[in-house]
Task: inverse folding
């Protein structure tokens, strides 16, 4: 079982995959704006990981 499994039916709708990537990216921007680079890096990494798993090469979602 993967943390973000692109083959899971939950991630079938494109809007849901986009939301899973955009939400932590926006939070990273908010943290960076607030002067918290550590938290921004953490949430930016989470957004990058979500993008890689859901839209990166080799996924099975599309």
Result:
């Amino acid at each position: 079982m993967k943390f973000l499994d692109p083959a899971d039916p939950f991630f079938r709708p494109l809007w849901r995959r986009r939301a899973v990537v955009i939400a932590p990216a926006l939070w990273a921007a908010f943290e960076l704006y607030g002067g918290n680079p550590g938290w921004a890096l953490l949430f930016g990494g989470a957004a990058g990981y979500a993008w890689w798993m859901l839209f990166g090469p080799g996924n099975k979602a599309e």
